[in-house]
Amino acid sequence: MKKLPNLFKFDEISDGDNDFKDLMIGIFKKEFPIEKKAFFDSFESEKYKESAEVVHKLKHKINLLSLEEGYILASNFESQLINNSFELFDEFVIILETIENFLKKI
Q1: How far apart are CA 95 and CA 55, in angstroms?
Q2: Angle CA(6)–CA(66)–CA(77) in degrees, nearest 5?
Q3: DSSP state string for the chain
Q4: pLDDT band at 3 (very low <50, low <70, confident <90, very high)
Q5: What distance in Å separates the CA atoms of residue 31 and residue 20, rounded to the nearest whole number?
Q6: Which CATH number fits domain 19-105: 1.20.120, 2.60.40, 1.25.40, 1.10.3210?
Q7: pLDDT of 19-55, one tens digit each?
């Protein structure tokens, strides 16, 4: 993944309302670790359909951080999980780690 996460879409959605932007970021920061944990828990338990459902949620968060390539990868990984394929697992984990590191800085 070449592009780094950013808050441009949050800026766009909030349209200058910093309180609303801060609220959205707060919700994002609260939900992301929960969904990340849910992904790993379901994956490690070999509940791949459940993992795919969590990836579906996470891919929208990936998109909110302007990670278009990451969104496409997550979409493909979601489809793979439904078919019990895991080729994109390592790349997906890198995206999650990148987001986690970004969220620690904001």
Answers
A1: 12
A2: 125
A3: --SPP-SHHHHHHHTT-HHHHHHHHHHHHHHHHHHHHHHHHHHHTT-HHHHHHHHHHHHHHHHHTT-HHHHHHHHHHHHHHHTT--TTHHHHHHHHHHHHHHHHH-
A4: confident
A5: 16
A6: 1.20.120
A7: 999 999 999 999 999 999 999 999 999 999 999 999 9
Q: Which two tokens stand for residue 22?
A: 């801060």
pTM over 0.85: yes
pLDDT in tens, 51-102: 999 999 999 999 999 999 999 999 999 999 999 999 999 999 999 999 999 9
Structure tokens at 86: 């895991």
